[in-house]
Specification:
alpha/beta; 2 domains; five-stranded parallel sheet; three-stranded parallel sheet; 13 helices
C-alpha cells in the first residue's frame, strides 16, 4: 500500500456513524466493541437489535490479571477464550465460560500472502486511562535497519489517536498512514482483515491483540526493541510508567511463556513459527471451549433473565428524544 490514507479519510474512519455500532443498545461494552458483538450474534443466531447481557474479554492475549469491571460485572456471566483466565474468574466466584474468539465465527481465518507487499507497522495506541510515548526518530532508524524484503513500510494508527496534531507529527516520517477505524464499529474486524491482506509482514513496538490477529492470519509479526516506547497509566491526576508484563501476567509461569513468545517475535521469519502458531491458535479456538449450541443457549438465557433491562435500554433514548422534541 504505497499511498496510505489522507488526513480526511483517517478522521472519517475514526468517527463512523452511529448505526455501525449495531442496531440495538449496548448493555456491556466489553462484549460489543471491535466487532465482538457481531461475532457473538452470528454464533448464536441472536437478533442484531437486541442487547447482549454478558461480559467478556475485550482483547486477545493470555492476560491473567483480573480487572474490576470483569469480576464485578452486573450480568453474572463472563466469556473468555483464555483458559487460564477462566480458571481465575471461576475461583473469584464468577460464572465464566471458555468460548472460541468471536472473530472465528465471522469467517476471518488465514489470508493469502504474497511477497513484496511490504510491512504494516502498528503504532502503540493510547486509551482514556493511559498514554504511550515513543520516539519517531528511533522508529525510522529501526525500519532503516530491516532487510529490503520488509519494504515498503506503512504506519497503522488507532482511531483514538487519529487527531490532526498526532497525524501531522507522523507525516514527518514521510511514510503512508492507515487505520482500521473506529473500534466501536461492528465492521472493525473486516476493515482490520482488509488491511492485513495488503501486506506480507506486520511489526510493532508492543505485543497486543494486533500481534495475535496477525499471526492467526498467517502473517509474521516483527517486534521492535521494547525500550523504544514507554507505557504510562493514569494514577490520579498524573501518568506513571508501569511494567505491562508484570501487571498483566502476575503468575510467573504465564509471564515466562509470554517472554519466550516475545523473544521469538524478534526473529526474522517468513511465516509464523509452529510454536507461535500453537500459542496463538489456543487463544482463538481453545481445545476445551464450549460448542456453538451451548454458547447460544447461554446468550439467549441471559436475555430472558434480563428482558426488563432490555426494555429499559430501548426506552431511555426514546424518552430523551421526546424531551428534546417537547422542549
Amino acid at each position: 500500500m504505497a499511498k496510505g490514507f489522507s488526513d480526511r479519510k483517517l478522521d472519517r474512519l475514526a468517527r463512523r456513524p452511529r448505526w455501525e455500532r449495531g442496531l440495538g443498545p449496548w448493555a456491556s461494552w466489553e462484549s460489543e466493541r471491535t466487532g465482538y458483538g457481531l461475532g457473538f450474534r452470528v454464533a448464536s443466531g441472536f437478533p442484531f437489535f437486541l442487547p447482549l447481557f454478558f461480559s467478556s474479554d475485550h482483547y486477545v492475549a493470555p492476560i491473567t490479571n483480573l480487572r474490576e469491571n470483569e469480576v464485578n460485572s452486573p450480568f453474572g456471566v463472563f466469556f473468555s477464550w483464555n483458559s487460564r483466565k477462566v480458571e481465575k474468574m471461576r475461583a473469584a466466584g464468577v460464572v465464566a465460560e471458555l468460548s472460541s474468539h468471536p472473530w472465528t465465527y465471522l469467517g476471518l481465518n488465514g489470508v493469502r500472502r504474497k511477497s513484496g507487499r511490504g510491512t504494516l507497522v502498528f503504532l502503540p495506541h493510547s486509551t482514556p486511562n493511559s498514554n504511550v510515548d515513543f520516539r519517531l526518530e528511533a522508529l525510522i532508524s529501526e525500519l532503516g535497519c530491516l532487510p529490503e524484503k520488509y519494504r515498503p513500510f506503512t504506519l497503522c494508527v488507532g482511531s483514538q489517536d487519529s487527531t490532526q496534531q498526532y497525524i501531522s507529527g507522523l507525516r514527518a516520517a514521510a511514510l503512508p498512514i492507515v487505520t482500521a477505524g473506529d473500534i466501536l464499529s461492528q465492521l472493525f474486524p473486516f476493515r482490520f482483515w482488509g488491511l492485513l491482506r495488503k501486506f506480507s509482514y506486520t511489526a510493532g513496538f508492543s505485543v497486543g491483540s494486533h500481534t495475535y490477529y496477525s499471526i492467526y492470519a498467517g502473517i509474521p509479526f516483527r517486534l521492535f526493541a521494547p525500550e523504544m516506547f514507554e507505557f504510562r497509566k493514569r494514577t490520579g491526576a498524573s501518568f506513571e510508567k508501569i511494567d505491562v508484563l508484570q501487571e498483566d501476567y502476575p503468575e510467573e509461569d504465564v509471564a515466562a511463556g509470554v517472554r519466550i513468545f516475545r523473544e521469538s517475535l524478534m526473529e526474522d521469519l517468513e511465516v509464523p513459527s509452529k510454536s507461535q502458531t500453537r500459542h496463538v491458535s489456543e487463544l482463538f479456538r481453545p481445545a476445551n471451549a464450549i460448542h456453538r449450541g451451548a454458547l447460544a443457549m447461554i446468550i439467549w438465557r441471559q436475555f430472558f433473565v434480563n428482558w426488563r433491562s432490555a426494555l429499559s435500554l430501548w426506552w431511555h433514548p426514546v424518552k430523551r428524544r421526546l424531551r428534546v422534541l417537547g422542549s
